[in-house]
Amino acid sequence: MFDDRTDAGERLAAELEARNLAVDVVLGIPRGALPVARPVADTLDADLDVVVARKMGAPQNPEVALGAVASDGSVWYNDDLIDRLHPSEEYLEEVRAAEAENAREKADRYRESGGVPDLRGERVLLVDDGVATGATATACLRQVRGAEADWVGLAVPVGSPRAIDALEREADAVIALRTPADFRAVGQFYRTFDQVSDEEALEYLDREP
């Protein structure tokens, strides 16, 4: 169990330091990833910034991810789930467009220029507070890859074994402190897993709300 996201970030940072991982930029997924990403960036002496993606929910059940789309339009579809649920092409396009716009608006709140920073030729580490389906992480990794980063990694305190396996096909390296067989939800492994507000998240970036 992690006490909270800061504790998880400190433990993750210690593991990455022990591996002698060198990166130029750490990217957190707002909002919950930023308390984890801050100690990682500080320990690795890397810049901290954000990358944004939004889950595309299923009809009548928005918590179920048909996929995810990043602020630049990079998209990942859960083909197995789509084959089972058979949403219409019209629905898929409607939810993709709506969530892409939501992601762009969120990126604009966190970054004046929106999108992602200039990552060409950089070693970039994406950090989240945990991975359940891997939907948003996949969309974010694809956005970073599209930004011509030289190396793209993912580090999380905890993740489902299935999602971590899938994400290894998207990143140059995936580091997870725990991949428990009994994984049900990210919050299951935190004693405190409160919502992080935009104001709090911006403080981790040292930016004004």
TrEMBL record:
Note whether Repeat occurs among the keywords: no
Q: Does the keyword Transferase apply?
A: yes
Q: Which Gene3D superfamilies match?
A: 3.40.50.2020, PRTase-like
Q: Which InterPro entries match?
A: PRTase-like, PRTase_dom
Record-given protein name: Phosphoribosyltransferase
**Which CDD domains does the protein's record reference?**
PRTases_typeI
SUPFAM superfamilies attached to this UniProt entry: PRTase-like
Keyword set, alphabetical order: Glycosyltransferase, Transferase
Name the source organism: Natrinema altunense
Q: Which residues form the Phosphoribosyltransferase domain?
A: 7-163
Q: Name one GO molecular function term.
A: glycosyltransferase activity
